Amino acid sequence: LLLLRRLEAYGFKSFADKTEVDFGPGITVVVGPNGSGKSNISDAIRWVLGEQNIRNLRGSRVEDIIFSGSTGRRALGVAEVSLVFDNTDGVLPLDFNEVTITRRVFRSGESEYFINKAHCRLKDIHDLLADTGLGREAMPVISQNKVDEILNSKPEERRLIFEEAAGITRYKNRKKEALRK
Ligand code: ATP
Ligand code: MG
User: Fold this and answer.
1) What is the ipTM of this complex?
2) Which residues does the annotation say bind ATP (predicted)?
3) Which end of the chain is more exposed for a tag (fewer CB within 10 A), N or C?
């Protein structure tokens, strides 16, 4: 089992201050008034997991996911979010009990990725997460409109979801890479 233990956000959307969310065992429910940032938490999670389409994060440009300022608060130049996973069961193929994935973006649009604080590529994050249930096609975060989208998708598109669930995405990606070389 791969458990999300903690989320740390700074400068992402409404999180102007460094914000930490601890996820205990069991189910976590986030409650709060409209506009208080509940959905921003799931956006943050999806973003670290590699979401590249700002529209899926309810924005249109990269600046929309960086804190844009409020009364008495200046806008920030960078957004950074980390997800801390409990890897004691070794689901992630890394020899660490805790794995932290971090993504950072600047107003220029330049992105940086880190695994356990070490610089890496987005591809390394996709490779790490493939077939863990958190990969690109696994849809660990399902938004309201996504349900309709899945129901209306073409069989070939829907197949990707099953391949991820079956744990063969990793091998398909490697095959694709090998054929390209
Ligand atoms: P609802 O109950 O209506 O779904 P919610 O708790 O899910 O609300 P969110 O959509 O997570 O609320 O948060 C929206 C808030 O985040 C808005 O107040 C919006 O101004 C703020 N916000 C979004 N992007 C930014 C940004 N780049 N900078 C500052 N604030 C932002
Ligand atoms: Mg919401």
Assistant:
1) 0.98
2) 33-40
3) C
